[in-house]
Design brief:
396 residues; single chain; RNA-binding; 3-stranded antiparallel β-sheet; alpha/beta
Length: 396
Amino acid sequence: MSATERGSSAIGFEVLATAEGEGTRARAGRLQTPHGIVETPIFMPVGTNATVKALDPDDLREVGASIILSNTYHLSIRPGHERIERLGGLHHFMSWDRPILTDSGGFQVVSLGDLRRIDEEGVTFRSHLDGTLLDYTPEYAIAIQEALGSDIAVCLDQPVPPSASSRREVAEATARTHRWAERCLVAHQRPDQALFGIIQGGLEADLRRESTAAIAGLPFDGICIGGLAGDETPQQRRAVLDVVVPLLAADPRPRYLMGLGSPMDLLDAVDAGVDMFDSVLPARVARNGTLWVPDGRLNLRNARFLDDPRPVQEGCTCRLCRSFSRAYLAHLFRADELLAFRLATCHNLTFTLDFMASIRSAIRAGTFPESMRTLRASRAGTNSAESADEGRVNSA
RNA sequence: GGGUAGGUUGAGCAGGUGGUGAGCUCCGCUGACUGUAGAUCAGCCGUCUUCGACUGUGGGGGUUCGAUUCCCUCCCUGCCCA
């Protein structure tokens, strides 16, 4: 099979509603996968090592996760994708029966920094665990993902940190990403698994256009927009999305913006027309003591919470807010108690997934840009909450 | 009572046998975190008018140009012997 022809798709995607409004391309849809239906726009919690850190599958269902992301690179070196395959595949291994998307290891090309070398054939990693040399190719990345049995596999790509790279470096990495994308398509065979291609191109509009055309021209099941989880400004991100998404306007496939997950990033990108997201941010930030609330965020390690009897977020239905006070969570963090990680992660993921749910209903109800104005003004998840919140306490 | 080892910034320590002790780890305070080498990392953590300055090695006294260091004395703590 060549890179330009493919059999029937493992997934289906339909757009159910499009926001009516000036300057918005927001849409709500439904993604059908071998392990169930995903309503979009959706946020995928990240479970790198076949676990969303600190949570079990029951917790995940409770916070409302309908699909999670797991990681090709990490699972291939530990415990090994062959082992997972022998043990019944990733879903069975981790006891998660809803959809899984596996990232290709492309991001580790960036995140592992000096532990890797890139050439046309692929990437040579030095294992972050024991230093072993690992030859990673597009074909191998696909083989791993097929062994894992995720619902959606992703091409191996070569992201480059936009702000730290020359135009030439970005252009080369992008062109290589396109060649690797074709190799992934040729290698991919599993009929019950979808394959997404990845657009790169840094912050350069013309490179992004070129990359969008190249990737959208191939028979992928979905289109990823990569390379934007770095240190660009929100304006730069929006500019890239406003270049890429209009070129996909007539394209029936889902659009997935890789690696962004702050509430404002999500809102902006949905507005720009993106359907799928993943990010480590809400979970990592939770483990480090920062809890997202509609007014902003609370750092539960701050001394002011030690005597605060209120829940983290009034009205939140998560495991944390249902039963525990800010004072209790603040205590758990100080005492280095493991429960802090679970409760905080449950809250931030509940917050994020509830946020996405409210975006979906706004789009479906035809009130999208307007009904989100409050949220936009509230700066959810940003650092402005402290003062507002504190003011209320003092005046009480 | 005798002997002995000690008393260093919230805690625990390092160092210092005459030439400016603010060094470490906890604790504490604050910030960061975006396709997870992250239950991590960074800054602050004696005082002040903070790119600097001042004070500080149990108390008091002595020797000295100069003492945390040497001498005397007192207080406190651990251990050993009576």
